[in-house]
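Q: What structure does this chain adopt?
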Amino acid sequence: MAFRVQVRFTPQLRRFVEAPEPEVHADTPRAALEAVFADEPRLRSYLLDDQGELRQHVALFVDGKLLRKAEDLDRELEQECEIHFMQALSGG
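A:
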């Protein structure tokens, strides 16, 4: 079942590529991303690697909860929600 999903991106990402923050209908975070990529295909290479998985330094949050596993992009959504894609910070 597809739910209304608000997709959000950090301002840092929007400095490099147009990143609209649409409301889409999706049943997984991946389906929400695919809906966004339909309008802005350049976002794909910023967020996903060659295998279609989140890049190492991209964090996925669903309703404020950090999801870390590779399979979380395909996790079924349970309700209308907000999905945030952010650059994960690293360093020392």
